[in-house]
Amino acid sequence: MACGDERCKMADGSNATKTSAPRTSLPARPAEPRRLRGEPWLATVAVLFTLAQLVLVRPDLGLGWDETVYVSQVSGHVPAAYFSAPRSRGISFLVAPIASWSDSTVLLRIYLAVLSGLALYFALRVWRGHFRPGVLALAGALFASLWVTLFYGLQAMPNYWVAIGALACVGCFLRARAKARDRAAWWGLFAGAALMACMRPMDAVYVVLPLLVLALRRPRLLAVLVVGLVAGAGEWVIEAYTSYGGLAQRLSDASAIQGGLGWHLAVVDQLRSLGGRTLCRPCTGSVPNPAVTLWWFALPLLAVLGAVVAVRARRALPVLLPGACAVTAAVPYLFLIGYAAPRFLLPAYALLALPVAEGLAHLVTAPARRAGRTLAVGLVAVGLAGHLGVQYVVLEHTVHSSAASRADWARTATALHALGVRQPCLLSGYDAVPIAYYTGCGSAQTAGHDASTSVAELTRAAHRTSFAVLAPPGRRAPAYARTWPDERVGVLRAYVAPDAQRGR
């Protein structure tokens, strides 16, 4: 083909020196590998999350009631507390590397804070192919800055780890669905499902419901997801048959302990708990100040905005799927149980953070004019700053009140030691489970959710070991202990078996 224009002459370079002005060439900057894109952002979020836990929650915070149950299962320093039907041993396995040889709460908290930061980093990293680095880092920061995330990240409790498993599982599901050769995604899908099921089996099932629906026509995806759930919940199911009378009986007992699963409108209860109540049961009192709950109402609105933006951009699934899993994860705690705890919704918060970040990013980048964009950035910045301030205030209040109750348990334990209640020993009665851990004793109850023995067995135990029954002011001791010497221990009264007092 004949060619007479200037472009053809340039193509073979014959007139290159005549038609192009001389210029100094600079060495080209190597392109950043895709796998490293956004890494500093995610690492920064994870490091700041770890440091915030250690500074704001503090590693010297004593163990809470549920924590003492989980830690005692693997502790080499105290007898294992009764393990009720709803509980799963995943968190006990997680703390075993420290709790099995050390009774230091500070060391355990530092270990969990570092581990939770690393876990957040890797769970966010899964999503790099679906969200811009800044949006993904914002999602991580939004989740990590919630007071409930900061408070429970370094605690021996399962809910944060269900959230991390959910984040990793959904992200790996999308990656494996898009690229069957991505081996890391398949292993991540299995591990995320197994982590959730190991920590809280029923939570895991609710989280993955949308994934199961999408995987119905993908046998390999479905198989890996189900195998992950079975692997994580296997120990819980086996234990159901060895210790609880079978799977159906354990599920029934777990439902009874939780007040009976069924229609319960717990939305208002969750609102009441946002003011820093770690357990709202019974959930009475007023809803916190609107400034404290405003973020909770903004959350679904921003998530919907993010979903709309994603649909318009023809990248709906990476935004809609975590939103759908967040909804199914939240349903049982909003509509099926009659009480509330803010930690129950941590998996939903982790998953909703992705569409929420997408919505916020759209707000600050959508306005075409510079003035509109500046205004949007200013409003979002002010809103986020106010949100962070509210989260800090609630966190500080929660830490202070929790530390006070745990200090009371420690003082009661010291007073019991002074009365001669020392290892090997046994406690029963009011708050016996956590106080037993602080005292170094075992615990046993004849009634309630932690009922594990009979009055006759406790009476016999009183002759064999150091034993005390705890009662709050104004409440009488059980009949078998009313003739025992009693003394005040903290705010409680301790009825100490005579055999225990002889050891003073």
Shape: globular
The overall average pLDDT, rounded, is 90
Low-pLDDT stretches = 1-32
User: How much is the radius of gyration in Å?
Assistant: 28 Å
The strand count comes to 5
Termini distance?
Answer: 109 Å
Strand order of the largest sheet: 2-1-3-5-4
The secondary structure category is mainly alpha
Task: State the order of secondary-structure elements, H for helix, E for strand.
Answer: HHHHHHHHHHHHHHHHHHEHEHEEEH
Number of helices: 21
Q: Can you tag this structure with a few keywords?
A:
504 residues, mainly alpha, 21 helices, 5 strands, 62% helix, 4% strand, disordered N terminus
What does this structure look like?
It is a single chain. α3 runs antiparallel to α6, α9 runs antiparallel to α10 (183-199) and α10 packs parallel to α12. The N and C termini lie far apart (109 Å). Among the domains are: 259-366, no CATH class; 405-501, no CATH class. A five-stranded mixed β-sheet has the order 2-1-3-5-4, with helices on both faces. It has helices spanning 6-11, 16-19, 39-57, 65-72, 90-99, 105-125, 133-144, 147-153, 159-178, 183-199, 201-214, 219-243, 247-257, 267-273, 290-312, 317-335, 346-365, 370-418, 432-439, 455-464, 498-501; strands spanning 425-429, 442-443, 466-471, 486-489, 492-496. The protein has 21 helices and five strands. By secondary structure, the chain is mainly alpha-helical.
Kindly summarize this structure in a few lines.
By secondary structure, the chain is mainly α. It contains 21 helices and five strands. Among the domains are: 108 residues, no CATH class; 97 residues, no CATH class.
